[in-house]
């Protein structure tokens, strides 16, 4: 029997970017909040002098323990799903800050096209352009509606960047200027301009200069140390909930932060939630935390899994196409890239930062004519300089043995002489790609695991073929001695694919029949439950999702304040 605690106005499940932003905004408004985080407490001192590639990159210290909880995966309904035993394609953060502590910091806005994708596609190309097995839908809100929230997030995080044509209008420039343009990025810039493209520096949450945000949080500029993804930043240069919004919430005195608190279900009557059940992971004790409002702000898989295990909302059925919880799971499409090898040139590719890069907007969204192609949306074409740490990076041309003398020879030869022109493509939803509960496998608490049914679609494969030609054309202009281009998209493999961006499962919209939440991320089926994070995205753009996740978190916080005052549906 769970011990019942005193009721609070708001309980937040997960204290990463979404939970941290919402906690900060609500506590500043004088609202008492309980924040539940299943991992440990962190502050910036925990990141000090921890450039340990083995510990963080390869042993995944900041990540969820897969021996206690994981996901299962299958490519289609005919296959048996099997548990993911080690991290490959994506990594799920655990502990205060969540994925916001170990992310790279690339901070884009989604395009105006993204928010009205169905309407704008049909307007330009006709209704037959969208095939029936792709449940693509408008989000129920426009870019112009979201622009002020983007602006708020960027000022809080101190995003470094430059204004770009072909994207939506901005009310303000980025709060700090773009990062350093290294010789590697200059190579890409020169080649792209020769082809008539418009390269720009990637917007970065790695600060280009010292910065003090509107909440009074001061942070230092990036040192280009190359320890961003999978690592916390010891300088505080990388925007992280632990060094931005969570300290603000703590300072108000209105945040009751409880770490090592793993939420297992939402208490509800099918129409409204009354609180959550969580387990103290040290003692095994179970507690019930009543609340007027329950906010799910965890990772995509955890948000969906909590709702399904709590029997809240209608599960999606791929056979009937009915139901909304688990619907429109999307990933990102990253094949189509070209690797460039130089025999007589070297670059300082061991220095870098997680959002140090340059790309072109020409093939993103609907910025080019799709009349004669068999796919929608597009890709960001880019070169990045993350910093090639020595253990993980042993690059060699396709066909080189994966071990032995020849592998060593080629790895040494190209250690400082390989660049990439990358493609990160949008992911459109498909009726057969979805999330549900696994009927066989359970976690350490006996709760069913999340099952992912996902494979790349015909849309994805056509996108890769097209973008491979673009990356190769830019690569040729950069003058390497050898180019390898991945021009075909293989089947999805949860252990080897390389992108980390997951979206969907609790998607937003204007109709309860095809969406789970409204544009304030308030559930249609339970008005006092808000589900924040990229689980709300009806599709995934070609851009990294964090900037859009942050913008919607500010909007959700605004909605929660309104709900606490008046109740009822916000739209």
From the 3D structure, determine the CATH topology. FAD/NAD(P)-binding domain
Span between termini: 38 Å
| CATH architecture annotation | 3-Layer(bba) Sandwich
Report the CATH superfamily. FAD/NAD(P)-binding domain
Q: Please estimate the helix content.
A: 10-25%
Report the sheet-strand fraction: 15-25%
Please outline the major beta sheet.
8 strands, mixed
Low-pLDDT residue spans: none
Q: What is the highest CATH level, the class?
A: Alpha Beta
Describe this structure in words.
Strand 2 (8-13), helix 1 and strand 3 form a beta-alpha-beta unit. The model has no long low-confidence stretch (mean pLDDT 95). The chain has helices at residues 17-28, 53-58, 99-102, 112-115, 117-125, 143-157, 183-194, 245-252, 300-309, 405-413, 458-477, 546-566; strands at 3-4, 8-13, 33-36, 71-74, 82-83, 200-201, 211-212, 218-219, 255-258, 261-268, 273-280, 286-296, 327-330, 338-341, 357-360, 379-384, 418-425, 434-442, 448-453, 482-485, 503-505, 529-531. It is built from 12 helices and 22 strands. It has a single domain (3-72, 87-566), classed as FAD/NAD(P)-binding domain, CATH 3.50.50. The chain has 571 residues and is of the alpha/beta class. Helix 1 (17-28) packs parallel to helix 8, helix 6 (143-157) packs across helix 12 (546-566) and helix 7 (183-194) crosses helix 11. The strands form 5 sheets. Strands 1, 2, 3, 9, 10, 11, 12 and 22 form an 8-stranded mixed β-sheet that branches. It has a 6-stranded antiparallel β-sheet with strand order 6-15-16-17-14-20. A 4-stranded mixed β-sheet has the order 5-4-19-18, covered by helices on one side. Helix content is 23%, strand content 19%.
């Amino acid at each position: 029997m769970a011990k019942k605690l005193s009721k609070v106005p708001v309980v937040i499940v997960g204290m990463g970017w979404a939970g941290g932003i919402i906690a900060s905004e609500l506590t500043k408004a004088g609202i008492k909040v309980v924040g539940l985080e299943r991992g440990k407490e962190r502050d910036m001192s925990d990141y000090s002098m921890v450039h340990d590639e083995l510990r963080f990159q390869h042993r995944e210290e900041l990540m969820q323990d897969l021996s206690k909880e994981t996901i299962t995966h299958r490519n289609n309904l005919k296959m048996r799903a099997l548990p993911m035993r080690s991290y490959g394609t994506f990594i799920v953060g655990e502990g205060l800050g969540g994925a916001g502590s170990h992310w790279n910091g690339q901070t884009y806005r989604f395009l105006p096209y993204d928010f009205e994708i169905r309407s704008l596609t049909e307007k330009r190309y006709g209704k037959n352009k969208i095939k029936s097995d792709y449940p693509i839908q408008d989000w129920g809100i426009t870019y112009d509606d979201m622009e002020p929230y983007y602006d708020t997030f960027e000022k809080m995080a101190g995003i470094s960047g430059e204004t770009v044509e072909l994207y939506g209008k901005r009310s303000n420039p980025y709060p700090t200027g773009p990062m350093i343009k290294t010789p590697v990025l200059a190579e890409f810039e020169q080649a792209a301009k020769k082809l008539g493209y418009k390269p720009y520096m990637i917007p970065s949450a790695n600060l280009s200069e010292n910065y003090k945000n509107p909440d009074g949080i001061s942070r230092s500029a990036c040192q280009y140390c190359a320890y961003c993804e999978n690592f916390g930043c010891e300088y505080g240069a990388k925007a992280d909930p632990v060094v931005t919004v969570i300290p603000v919430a703590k300072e108000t005195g209105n945040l009751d932060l409880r770490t090592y608190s793993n939420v297992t279900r939402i208490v509800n009557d099918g129409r409204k939630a009354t609180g959550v059940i969580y387990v103290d992971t040290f003692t095994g004790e179970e507690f019930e935390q009543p609340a007027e409002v329950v906010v799910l702000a965890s990772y995509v898989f955890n948000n969906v899994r909590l709702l399904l295990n709590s029997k809240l909302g209608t599960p999606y059925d791929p056979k009937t196409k009915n139901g909304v919880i688990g619907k429109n799971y999307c990933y990102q499409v990253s094949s189509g890239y070209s690797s460039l090898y130089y025999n007589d040139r070297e670059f300082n590719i061991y220095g870098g930062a997680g959002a140090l890069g340059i790309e072109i907007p020409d093939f993103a969204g609907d910025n080019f004519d799709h009349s004669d192609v068999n796919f929608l949306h597009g890709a960001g074409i880019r070169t990045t300089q993350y910093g090639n740490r020595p253990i993980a990076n042993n690059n060699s041309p396709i066909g080189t043995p994966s071990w032995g003398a020849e592998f060593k020879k080629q790895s040494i030869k190209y250690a400082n002489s390989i660049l990439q022109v990358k493609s990160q493509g949008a992911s459109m939803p498909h009726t057969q790609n979805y999330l549900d509960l696994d009927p066989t496998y359970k976690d350490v608490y006996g709760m069913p695991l999340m099952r992912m049914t996902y494979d790349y679609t015909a849309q994805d494969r056509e996108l890769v073929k097209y973008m491979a030609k673009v990356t190769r054309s830019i690569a040729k202009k950069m003058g390497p001695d050898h180019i390898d281009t991945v021009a075909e998209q293989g089947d999805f493999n949860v252990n080897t694919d390389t992108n980390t961006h997951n979206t969907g499962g609790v998607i937003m919209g204007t109709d309860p029949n095809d969406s789970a939440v409204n544009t304030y991320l308030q559930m249609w089926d339970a008005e006092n439950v808000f589900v924040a994070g990229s689980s709300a995205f009806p599709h995934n753009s070609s851009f990294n999702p964090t900037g859009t996740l942050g913008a919607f978190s500010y909007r959700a916080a605004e909605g929660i304040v309104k709900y606490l005052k008046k109740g009822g549906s916000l739209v």
